[in-house]
Amino acid sequence: MYVLGIEGTAWNLSAAIVNEDDVIIERAATYTPARGGIHPREAAQHHSEHIGPLLREVIQGARDLGIKIDGVAFSQGPGLGPCLRTVATAARVLALKLNVPLVGVNHCIAHIEIGKWKTGARDPAVLYVSGGNSQVLALRRGRYRIFGETLDISVGNMLDKFARSVGLPHPGGPRIEELARNAKEYIPLPYTVKGMDFSFSGLATAAAEAARRYDLEDVCYSLQETAFAMLVEVTERAMAHAEKKEAMLVGGVGANRRLGEMLRLMCEERGARFYLPERRFMGDNGSMIAYTGLVMLKSGVSTPIESSGVRPNYRTDEVEVRWA
Ligand code: ATP
Ligand code: FE2
Question: Which ipTM score applies to this complex?
Answer without folding.
Answer: 0.98
